[in-house]
Amino acid sequence: MGFWFEEYHTANTKFGIRVGEQLYHGESEYQKIDVFDSPEFGRVLTSNGSVIFTDQEEFVYDEMVVHVPMAVHPNVKRVLVLGGGDGGVARELAHYNEIEIIDVVEPDKMFVDVSRKFFPNNAVGLDDVRVRIHYEDGLRFLRKCSDQYDLIINDATDPLGHEAGLFTKEFYGNCFKALHEDGIMVYQHGSPFFDEDEESCRSMHRKAYRSFPINRVYQAHIPTCPAGYWLFGFASKKYHPLKDFDAERWDARGIKTWYYTTHLHRGAFMLPKYVEDMLEEEE
After folding, report:
1. Active-site residue flag, 195
2. Distance CA 185, CA 201 (A)
3. Are 110 and 28 in contact (CB under 8 A)?
4. pLDDT of residue 45
5. Is the pLDDT of residue 128 over 80?
6. How far is it, in rounded angstroms, from Cα 168 to Cα 182?
7. CB 219 within 8 A of CB 268
8. Distance of CA 131 to the CA centre of its chain
């Protein structure tokens, strides 16, 4: 018969998923984690009552944070993933043979353990021999890094709570320091549609814009996100996401995807007018 998992996206907007069974509930020092089984989205992972990802849509997020920068940077050897304990980002990075090291910094070991048990299609990425998992705070890890990475992917889930440090001015400055002279940082930028989410989007763009010489924002459709609409930030020391984008080189790799294409790459940076206006105001 089942019941409904419900999450408030705003005080006046509620998102619901019919679920048939609760597969897991646990509480770490960082968060409450639940896993549900649903007829529409398959397994659903939530943190503190908010959907993190589902079986049926995780590919959108993971492909867009990985393949967009990888289609731009010509020679990625070392990658830092902040968060990413489910393994989905590492799984997409594993397609690239030239990558030598993938450091995954995830403070919550329980999150990794739950992902391994209930989301093996994601967690397989953590088994790649190039992956090194560090169970520590992402900002603390970054403070120790200088000129080490070609690509940093901020896969943190929320600008609040235990990952709040990964959305601060200090964080963006430390990312700049941790990157090589031609490095790229990609980060989740939130949903800009509802008024109560707008300020966090503005704040992230303002901090990244002041830290990196090249900044662009791109978009994707993710059904369980607020308004089904999600933004990502592309911040770079050297490479522009469109001017330095090499579609022919990426297509030649023959990577199988479900969402990302080189045609979509270009279109993802074409933003609605209200989003363009919001970003320009912060610049």
Report:
1. no
2. 16
3. yes
4. 97
5. yes
6. 22
7. yes
8. 17
Please enumerate in sequence order all residues whose Cβ is within 8 A of that of 93, keeping only pairs 6 or more positions apart, or say none.
66, 70, 79, 81, 99, 102, 125, 128
Q: Which range among 51-55, 85-89, 135-139, 199-203 shows the weakest confidence by mean pLDDT?
A: 199-203
Rounded to 5, what percent of the chain is helix, strand, coil? 35, 30, 30
> By the 8 A CB rule, do 68 and 268 touch?
yes
Integer Cα distance of 216 and 236 in angstroms: 9
Q: Average pLDDT over the chain, rounded to whole?
A: 93
Q: Which residue has the tokens 């002041």?
A: 210
- Residues constituting the chain: 283
**195-223, pLDDT tens digit by residue?**
888 888 888 888 888 899 999 999 999 99
Q: Dihedrals φ, ψ of 37, to 5°?
A: -110, 130
Handedness of CA 118, 38, 84, 137 (dihedral sign): negative
Q: Is the pTM of this model over 0.90?
A: yes
Closest CA to 161 of 177, 178, 137: 137
Q: Which helix (H) or strand (E) covers residue 184, if one does? A: strand 179-190
Q: Which of 184, 157, 199 is nearest to 240 (CA)?
A: 184
The tens digit of pLDDT for each residue in 167-194 reads 577 889 999 999 999 999 999 888 999 9
Question: According to the model, what pLDDT value does residue 167 have?
Answer: 57
Distance CA 76, CA 101 (A): 10
Contact 142, 174 (CB under 8 A): yes
The catalytically annotated residue of 62, 86, 103, 155 is 155
Count of beta carbons in the 10 Å neighbourhood of residue 236: 23
